[in-house]
Design brief:
Layout (H helix, E strand, L loop, with lengths): L3 E6 L4 E6 L4 E5 L15 H4 L3 E2 L5 E3 L3 E3 L1 H9 L3 H4 L11
Antiparallel strand pairs: 1-2, 2-3, 4-5, 5-6
Length: about 90
Amino acid sequence: MHKITHVEVQHGWELHLTFADGTAGTVDLADLAGKGVFALWNDRSAFESVRIGDVGQLCWGDQIDLCPDAMYLRLTGKQPEDIFPNLGRGTIHA
């Protein structure tokens, strides 16, 4: 899991993120804003209330949590198989 260690609100719906492994950059969440639970962000102060949760996820109160791995993929442009190599393998039976 890629833990977010720092978040800074930028302009628009952008967040500058830093991960425990040193990876850093800006993610644009405009494609989510205003849709479903993300309607919360229509209030700019609600968007700016982002915090980092106990396991490194992004949180907005108890209403929205965004997975740090999903944010890492969004930031780096990598595919899930790039950071979870076992996803590319066939079915494993126990």
